[in-house]
Structures are given as structure tokens and as C-alpha cells.
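Progress note, sequence design subtask.
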């Protein structure tokens, strides 16, 4: 069914489009308020700027069309290949520590030191600070070598610093590839397998390259490259699990994975229902999510959320599960959140923004609503026994 046909039927009064195939269609700027798209396939559908007040997307499947999944997998393979190549090249330079040439040994030791510093900083502080640390330490190492060993050793030190840069680039490319693989959930384990194959192919290419063949010392380059490759998957895993130290990798990966996915950007989704829907690779930036229902949705953590209340992991989990007993939501932005029937016993919302939120039939027994913003908040049928409500 084409978009024009659906719009014509909607204008004639039809609202039931359950389980319709809307894949790849565009309803940009259209008014489909009150339509029932429950169970529909909306992968790749463009609802940008559409008016969808009260529209039912219960059980709908959003995300990427198959051709876009293929494009993402090709991108994952290329990035993973770059990671494998750069990591192995770095391993070659680090293996200089086993050479007899003092110039090469300097380069190898500097590369190894930068690698160790980089791994430690990335694990505890994130890849952004890790890259900056490598740049500073690498530049300092070259300066010190030049001051004490003279110009002859600078070439070796420069090679080591260059290898450090390769480690950063390799880890960054690999982490991004891995994060995209995780983000493209519809591809499942296939994406991760492709990422692994890409890394292996890149490593083999680096080992076979004439430019580095002379630097090969048995299996040592791979020994030094292996920890960096493992680090890329660690970063990707932590990023997609919401680790704030790796927010940059996560945000870029989700933005990339949402390209070509379902788009609700700038749409009016007031009172829309996404319960039990699958929302991977979906764009909600600048959307109006007043009283929008996200109960029991899947892959809500994989959406492009912009500055909506979905940007907070704790809020995402709350609107998804409706379980907030004994939890702290102080000073968080929940404006317009749909928490109908939620369990919020002894929850704290001190100075939180609950304007226009829906708390119908919610259990707020002994909840703390001190200094909370409650303009147009709906408490119809809510249990407020023992709740602390103060300005």
C-alpha cells in the first residue's frame, strides 16, 4: 500500500491500519492523529513533522529496512578492518623492543608505554581522555628523547609516538564498529561476526603489507595488537550499556545506526501509544512526547533521543517498566512522561519537572514531591497517601 492510498483512506474516515506494511513510506508533515497502526511494519518510515496525536503504534516494528542493514554491516566491516590494520601495525612498531638497534628499541618502548597508558586511561576515564593523554605523552616523549639522546634517536621516538596515534585510531574505529554492530540489533550476532572478520582481515592485511614486512618479529606484533583489539570490544560493550565514560562512542554509533531508520523527528506524538513496540534505530529528536506511552517497548535504549526526557537512562527505564519504587528521580526532567499505573511507592521527585506528566492510577504512597514542578500534571485516580507535597 502506498502512502497516498493510506492518506486518501484516512481522509475518508478509515482509522484501522493494523499490521499494515508501511515500510519505507513517507508521511512527512501529514496529520494521522488517531490512526491505528498497531502491529504495523514501520521500518524506514518517515513521520518527520507529522501530527500523530493519539495514534496507536502498539506492537509496531520500527528500525532499519533490510537494505540499510546491509549498508550498516558493510560499514562495520570496513571500520573493523581499519581497526585490525592499525592495531597490528602498532603491534609491529611495538615489537621493535626486540631489535638490536637502539633507535628502533626507543620507538618500541615509547609505543609500548603509550599503549599501556592508553589502555589504563580508556578503561577508567574513556576514549576521549585516552586520546588526549597519548597525544601529550607522545609529544613529551619525543621532546625528552631529543634533549637527551640527540636527533638520531628522534626518528625512533617519532615512530613510537606515531604508533600511539595508530593505537588511538585503531581502538576508536574498532569501538565504533562494535557499537554500531550492537546498535543494529536487527542484525543480531551477524553484525558482531562481521566485525570480528573485518578485524582479522585488517590484521592480515597489515601483516602482509610490504611497508611493515621488515618489522615483523614472529607473532609478537599480533601479541601486542590483541589487547588493543579486545579493548575495542570492551569499549563498544560498555558504551552500549550506557557507561557515561563512553557516551561519545555510544551517541555517534546510535546516530549512525538510525540513518535510514524510522523517523519521528519533530513529530507531535501527544498521547501516542508505543507499548510493546520495537524501536531500534528510531529518531525521536525534537518530538513532542507529552503523555506518550512507552510501556514494555523493546530497544528503547537504541533510539536517537535528542533532548527529550528519553535522554536519561533512569527515565527511559521508568517509562518502559512503570517500576520506580524507592528510586530517586530528584531534579530530573520528566515533563510529559506517561507514568499511568506506575509503582512509585516511596519514590523521590524533589525539584523534578513533572509538568504535564500523566500519573493516572499511579501508586505514589509516601512519595516525595517537594519543590516539584506540577503544572497540568494529571493525578486522577492516583494514590497519594502519605506523600510529601510541598512548594
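Output:
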Amino acid at each position: 500500500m502506498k502512502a497516498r492510498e493510506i492518506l486518501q483512506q484516512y481522509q475518508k474516515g478509515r482509522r484501522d491500519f493494523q499490521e499494515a506494511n508501511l515500510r519505507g513510506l513517507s508521511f512527512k508533515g501529514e496529520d494521522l492523529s488517531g490512526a491505528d497502526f498497531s502491529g504495523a511494519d514501520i521500518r524506514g518510515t518517515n513521520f518527520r513533522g507529522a501530527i500523530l496525536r493519539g495514534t496507536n503504534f502498539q506492537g509496531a516494528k520500527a528500525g532499519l529496512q533490510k537494505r540499510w542493514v546491509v549498508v550498516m554491516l558493510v560499514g562495520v566491516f570496513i571500520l573493523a578492518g581499519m581497526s585490525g590494520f592499525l592495531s597490528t601495525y602498532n603491534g609491529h612498531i611495538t615489537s621493535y623492543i626486540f631489535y638490536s638497534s637502539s633507535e628502533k628499541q626507543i620507538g618500541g618502548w615509547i609505543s609500548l608505554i603509550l599503549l599501556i597508558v592508553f589502555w589504563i586511561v580508556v578503561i577508567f576515564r574513556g576514549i576521549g581522555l585516552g586520546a588526549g593523554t597519548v597525544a601529550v605523552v607522545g609529544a613529551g616523549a619525543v621532546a625528552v628523547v631529543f634533549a637527551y639522546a640527540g636527533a638520531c634517536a628522534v626518528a625512533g621516538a617519532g615512530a613510537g609516538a606515531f604508533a600511539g596515534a595508530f593505537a588511538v585510531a585503531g581502538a576508536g574505529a574498532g569501538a565504533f564498529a562494535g557499537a554500531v554492530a550492537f546498535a543494529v540489533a536487527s542484525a543480531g550476532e551477524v553484525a558482531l561476526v562481521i566485525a570480528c572478520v573485518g578485524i582479522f582481515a585488517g590484521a592480515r592485511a597489515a601483516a602482509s603489507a610490504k611497508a611493515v614486512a621488515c618489522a615483523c618479529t614472529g607473532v609478537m606484533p599480533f601479541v601486542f595488537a590483541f589487547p588493543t583489539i579486545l579493548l575495542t570490544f570492551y569499549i563498544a560493550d560498555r558504551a552500549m550499556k550506557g557507561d557515561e565514560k563512553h557516551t561519545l562512542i555510544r551517541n555517534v554509533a546510535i546516530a549512525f545506526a538510525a540513518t535510514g531508520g524510522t523517523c519521528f523527528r519533530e513529530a507531535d506524538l501527544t498521547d501516542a501509544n508505543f507499548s510493546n513496540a520495537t524501536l531500534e534505530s528510531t529518531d525521536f529528536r525534537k518530538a513532542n512526547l507529552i503523555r506518550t506511552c512507552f510501556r514494555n517497548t523493546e530497544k528503547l535504549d537504541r533510539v536517537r533521543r535528542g533532548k527529550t526526557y528519553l535522554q536519561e537512562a533512569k527515565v527511559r527505564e521508568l517509562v518502559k517498566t512503570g517500576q520506580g519504587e524507592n528510586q530517586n528521580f530528584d531534579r530530573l526532567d520528566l515533563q510529559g512522561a506517561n507514568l499511568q499505573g506506575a509503582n512509585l511507592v516511596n519514590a523521590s521527585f524533589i525539584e523534578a519537572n513533572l509538568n504535564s506528566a500523566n500519573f493516572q492510577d499511579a501508586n505514589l504512597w509516601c512519595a516525595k514531591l517537594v519543590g516539584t514542578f506540577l503544572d497540568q500534571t494529571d493525578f486522577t485516580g492516583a494514590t497519594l497517601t502519605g506523600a510529601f507535597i510541598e512548594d
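The longest helix spans residues 154-183. Work on this subtask will continue into the next period as scheduled.
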